[in-house]
Amino acid sequence: MGKFAKYKNKVYPVFIRNGKYRLKSIAREPGFKELVDLTGKVHQDIYVKEVDLEDLELIYERKYRIIYQGREYKPFAIGELVIENFKISLFSSDYLDYEKNGFIKKEQFVFMKEVSINEIDRLVLIKTPIDKFKELPEEKIIIPSNDILEYYEKFINN
Predict the structure, then answer these.
(1) Nearest-CA neighbor of 4 among 30, 31, 28, 24?
(2) What is the reported pLDDT for 158?
(3) Which run of H or E residues covers position 96?
(4) Residue 156 clears pLDDT 70, i.e. is over it
(5) Whether 83 contacts 149, CB under 8 Å
(6) What three-state secondary structure class fits 130?
(7) What is the residue extent of each domain of the chain?
(8) What pairing do the DSSP bridges indicate for beta strands 20-25 and 42-51?
């Protein structure tokens, strides 16, 4: 799950700190500066811009659900969705998935299964507005199995 902001008709990852909204980009854009991390290192491939909430068109949390064999699962990942070797890891807390669906027990009530993206029915992207936009409706975008890899390369893994 990550936070994103729409600013001047473009979507950026956003980090919130001290009431400021820091947009992040991998492209040099007007008003963005090279990221200087806490150690003072300048990152010439990451650009940031601090804006006020009033400057944003939308801010939302992005999360995913994976539909596999007709059931909904969360991805087994910290942060964003992860695809490795054309596979996605599914998370379940349901013991029946362990008993009947080939999930591996990681710890008590934590079960995981790696599946090929070709086995997935679809991926559901959920955008939940936050902050002053929280009254707006949640948006769900369905990504069919055959489009998951293209979506991943375009929107997540860049």
Answers:
(1) 24
(2) 47
(3) helix 95-100
(4) no
(5) yes
(6) coil
(7) 2-56, 62-156
(8) antiparallel
Calpha distance 3→138 (Å, rounded): 14
Structure tokens given for 14: 């956003």
Q: Dump pLDDT digits (tens) for 65-97.
A: 999 999 999 998 755 677 778 888 999 999 988
User: Does residue 60 contact residue 133 with C-beta atoms inside 8 Å?
Assistant: yes
Task: Report the 10 Å Cβ neighbour count for 7.
Answer: 21
Q: Residue for token digits 């902050």?
A: 131
Q: What is the full DSSP assignment across 38-89?
A: TT--EEEEEEEEEE-GGG-SEEEEEEEEEEETTEEEEES-SSS---BTTEEE
**pLDDT of amino acid 1:** 67
Q: Residue 25 carries which DSSP code?
A: E
| Residue 33 C-beta-side C-alpha neighbours within 13 Å | 8
Structure tokens at 141: 């975008």
